[in-house]
Amino acid sequence: MPKGEGKLIAQNKKARHDYAIEETFEAGIVLQGTEIKSVRNARVNLKDSYARISQGEIFLHNMHISPYEQGNRYNHEPLRTRKLLLHKKQISRLIGETKEAGYSIVPLKLYLKDGYAKVLIGVAKGKKKYDKREDLKRKEAKRDIERAFKERQR
Q1: What one-character-per-residue DSSP string does 14-48 give?
Q2: Which residues of 109-134 are buried (b: 16+ CB within 10 A; e: fewer)?
Q3: Of 2, 91, 141, 142, which residue is the least packed, with the fewest Cβ within 10 Å?
Q4: Cα torsion for 48, 65, 92, 106, to the nearest 10°?
């Protein structure tokens, strides 16, 4: 199965709006007991999350996984920092790319692949306000063209 494919659990649409994605990586994620049950129930929010490299490892910050209803005292903390699993070469490549000014690591999708939770992370550069407006205009024009083409075929 290619990277980025599987049963989609959560998607970060705001990241594609706010950032220009340069490159993507598929990473495993270290979860505690009841977290995977909440992930399978799609009780995840990636909206304000980001990844940061520290001491040769990558950690995901601000990803919200809701507590599992039947978890009682064994439940997890919803906003805890979670470790991402990548190969050493991939981590060193990410370190090199994020040293450049303006680049950051942003999670794009969370999905289940072969029973494991995977995160698609992207090396991203922040867009300026005029770039965002230009993208919106382009999408609007494309929608109008498709609508006109559909009307014409009827």
Answers
A1: HHHHHEEEEEEEEEEE---TTHHHHHHTT-EE-TT
A2: bbbbbeeebbbbbbbbeebeeeeeee
A3: 2
A4: -20
Q: Within 26-120, where are the H helices?
A: 35-40, 88-98
Identify the residue whose tokens are 């039947």.
Answer: 70
What residues have CB less than 8 Å from 38, skipping those under 6 apart? Answer: 44, 65, 66, 67, 68
The rounded percent of the chain whose pLDDT value lies above 90 is 33
Q: Tokens 């005029």 — which residue?
A: 130
Q: Rg of the Cα trace of the chain? A: 18
| Phi/psi-derived region of residue 74, left when phi > 0, alpha when psi is between -120 and 50, beta in every other case | alpha
pLDDT tens digits along 42-81? 889 988 899 999 998 999 999 998 888 887 777 888 888 9
Considering the entire predicted model, what is its pTM?
0.80
Q: How far is the C-alpha of 108 from the C-alpha of 137, rounded, in Å?
A: 23
Assess contact for 8 and 45: CB atoms under 8 A.
Answer: no
